[in-house]
Structure formats: structure tokens, C-alpha cells
Amino acid sequence: MIHLIGKTKSELEDFFISINEPKYRGKQLFEWFYNKRESDFSKMLNFSKSLREKLQNESKVHSLSFSDSQFSIQTSTKKYLLQTEDNRQIEAVIIPEEKRTTLCLSTQVGCPLDCKFCATGLMGFKRNLTTAEIVDQYLLTQKDYGKDVTNIVYMGMGEPLLNYENTLKSLEIFTSEETRGLSRNRITVSTSGIPQRIIDLANSGVKVKLALSLHSAFEDIRSKLMPINNKYPISDLLPALQFYAKETKTRITFEYTMFAGINDRDEDIRELGKLMSKLPSKINLIPFNSISHMTPDGISASLKSTTREKILEFADKLREKNLTVLLRNTQGDDIAAACGQLAIKKN
Ligand code: SAH
Ligand code: SF4
What we know:
Blueprint: E1 2-3, H1 9-18, H2 24-34, H3 49-58, E2 59-60, E3 65-71, E4 78-83, E5 89-96, E6 101-104, E7 108-110, H4 119-123, E8 125-128, H5 131-145, E9 151-154, H6 164-174, E10 187-191, H7 195-204, E11 209-213, H8 219-225, H9 228-231, H10 234-248, E12 252-258, H11 266-276, E13 281-287, H12 299-302, H13 308-319, E14 325-326, H14 335-338
Parallel strand pairs: 1-2, 6-9, 9-10, 10-11, 11-12, 12-13, 13-14
Antiparallel strand pairs: 3-4, 4-5, 5-6, 7-8
Helix pairs in contact: 1-2, 5-6, 7-10
């Protein structure tokens, strides 16, 4: 069985050529999936009956199925647990806001990077998701939620730039001109920072927005929170981020989860000011979402969120330096804090 969801337009064209059908069927099928949002072959009436039957019998549409979901009445956020064919569970979240509906999606089952504040990191790494599995999160949850997804953030489980090829293909599909309702400036890839992959993504042509999980502008503190900083320190990330901003003509978003006494001090404000003056950027301050359900130990167990009041004060002091600061209203509302934090024990 071949999976047709998750193939780019040119891969679908190659597929049709390989079964002795004209190349333009590739674009037609791509439009069915991503423009008309129809995945039932029997409804694709611009295909002959025999072709519809052939597709039905020899190919698979979805590679994920619903396993569980959780709906928040307060925020209308819906968290989905989705099941892969090899019985792994991943998470995707739909977060509606006034003017947009954001999907937060996963790129790996687990994550190998072991950030000390992250539930996904604590569960370890199982495997990369296929392009089909990444794209299916969009198709399935959007259909279930019953509202058009307008924005996508790669902030669920996993490190997208460690699953570079499949992430890039999913971005090609989402930003393709036939795909309805999405555009490159409404898609954000969030990364802990792999310099060469940031450069590759800048050169790839998809030109989506990039967020870097910073969490401290000091190398030693960032290394404690995010061991990957030992391999790829901020000093190596900076030129890659500058290049990304220049090539895509976008601003880099720094994600900054706030930990009491660790990265919410006056010297952190000064250091952030220095770093952010070096490139077009903005900063998103995120309350730390407790991961006590994962029974963390070591530094993970000692982390506490900065209070709401202190976060507001921190934001004001950054704004006094003419920096662009984003923050959201309530803890559960924040996209980065709301997604990726359900590590699944069954995995
Ligand atoms: N691996 C990528 C994307 C997934 S994590 C990355 O690290 O950027 C998505 C965002 O959630 C990141 O900014 C991450 O730092 C943040 N995050 C992880 N655990 C969190 C927690 N417990 N509370 C708040 N934000 C968290
Ligand atoms: Fe992986 Fe991102 Fe979590 Fe770090 S924060 S462990 S990179 S998912």
C-alpha cells in the first residue's frame, strides 16, 4: 500500500507517471487533498471510474488515527492524541483565537534533545515522523475541529530540524499555491537551534517564519537548560539566524520560557538587549508549564515558573529597550506552553 498524503505535488506527478497516467493527475489529486480537502477517491469525479477504483484499492490515504482528545471549555483548545500505524502516540493541538486558528503539530515521537523543562524531552526519542504523518495531523484535526486552520506552528513533540527532510516536504505541501487557507507567513518552525539546518531552511525557498527556543542569552545557563547548547552555542546560532532573517526578510522570534531566579533577572534583560540588537527579532515570553506529572529529577525538578506579575514587569523592561515583546493572557492559552507537553507514557 502506498501513502498518497504526504507526497509533494511533484512526487504525486511522478507517481501517476509510474502507473501510466498523465502527469497532470498529480496536480489534480494534490488539489483534491489540499484545496478541496477531499480524501475520498470515490468523489474525485475528474478521474475515470477505473482510476478511482485503482487508487482506492492500492493506496492509503491516512496514516494516523484518533486515539483520544481533550477539549478545554474555557479556551476551546483541543488536544489530540493520534496513533501511528506502529502504535505510537503523538500529539497535535488546535488553539482558536479571535482572528486565527492555530494548529500545533509534532515532527518526532519523543525528542532526543533532553531539554530540562520539556515533557517530550523527558520521554526520550522513539523515531522521526514521516511526511505523511506530519501532514495528516493537519488534515485530520482540521476536519474534526470543523474550522479552517489558518496558522501552523511546529511546536509539538520533537525537534523539526532533526527530521529535516520530512519537515521540509511538509512545508512545501503547506505553502504550495494550491493549498487553501495557509501561507508561508502564517507558518512557524520552532527549533532548539541546529545552525546548518537553519541555513539549509533559509536556502530552501519555503521562507516560513522561524522561532528559536532561547530561554537564556547566557551560554552557561542555556547549556544547563538545553544540553544541545554545548554542541551548538548561541555564538554559532547567531550567524545562522542573521542569515535566515536576511534571506527570508522575516524577524526571528525568540521563545523564552520563564523560570524563577534562573532567567528572569536584571542581567538577563541586559544580555537579551545585547543579543536582540544584533538581528531583526522579537521575543515571546512564556510561563513555564509544570512537568511534575513526569516525576522529573535533578534540575528539572527544581524549575518553577516566574510569576505572572514578574513576567509583565520583565516585558516592560524589555520594551524600554525598544524590543518587541509578545505575551499571552493566560497560562493555558499560550501556544508553546500548551503544546508538546503531554508526553505519553505508553510510548
Ligand atoms: N523542539 C522544538 C519545538 C518543540 S518545543 C523547540 O524546542 O523549539 C516548542 C516550544 O515549547 C519550545 O519553545 C520549548 O522550549 C517550549 N517548551 C517546552 N517545554 C515547555 C514547558 N514545560 N513550559 C513552557 N514551554 C515549554
Ligand atoms: Fe526537544 Fe524542543 Fe522539548 Fe527541547 S524543547 S526536548 S528540543 S521538543
